[in-house]
Amino acid sequence: MSPFNKEQFKEKPPAPEVYPSPEKEIKEVEILSPEKEKTPLPEQPSVSFPPSHIVGKKSAKTEIGQKIEEILSQDLEIFTEKLSPIEKKKFEIKTEETAGAIEKIINSAKIASQKILNIIKRFLRLLKGVNRFFIEKESKIKTDKILDLAKKRQQNSL
């Protein structure tokens, strides 16, 4: 005879899983919530920050950054009118980001017109229903205007 009992190795039938009923959870929450309301929270001093410290907002844009944004948004009113409010907000944010990237290039010692052109092309592709030839033409025009702005700025600083 073997030292093991066959009954030890027989599998037990699985027990059905018991899930807590949602009614019990709701009652527990209802019971706990009035107690929490009774305990007063300690008063915390209110701290207010000036608007310049708000995260994600730039309070002061540079003059050249504003001019670049104006150049980027010129002649695009027809397309931006068709956008939903959410898309308009995204477009405004992208305009600011693009202007910032172009401003960094302009502030560098060597201005790379091809980089500016590529940035503007990517920016204009955000508009839906715009012909690729229009994008090409507008990006060249806007690049020329931005390069003129950069030249004027360099002449004034010298």
Which terms summarize this structure?
single chain; mainly alpha; PWI domain; 7 helices
Describe the structure.
The chain has 158 residues and is mostly helical. It has a domain at 61-157: PWI domain. 62% of the residues lie in helices and 0% in strands. It is built from seven helices and no strands. The protein has helices spanning 6-9, 22-38, 63-73, 77-81, 85-107, 113-124, 132-157. Helix 3 packs across helix 5 (85-107), helix 3 (63-73) packs antiparallel against helix 7 and helix 6 (113-124) crosses helix 7. The chain is elongated.
List the helices and strands and how they pair.
Blueprint: H1 6-9, H2 22-38, H3 63-73, H4 77-81, H5 85-107, H6 113-124, H7 132-157
Helix pairs in contact: 3-5, 3-7, 5-6, 6-7
Radius of gyration: 32 Å
Largest sheet: none
State the low-pLDDT regions, or none. Answer: 33-37, 46-59
Order of helices and strands: HHHHHHH
CATH topology of the domain at 61-157: PWI domain
Oligomer: single chain
Task: Please state the average pLDDT score.
Answer: 76
Number of helices: 7
Range of strand content: under 5%
Q: What percent of the residues sit in helical stretches (DSSP H or I)? A: 55-70%
Backbone structural class: mainly alpha
Q: How many strand units?
A: 0
Q: What is the CA-CA span between the terminal residues?
A: 106 Å
Cα shape: elongated
CATH architecture grouping of the domain at 61-157:
Up-down Bundle
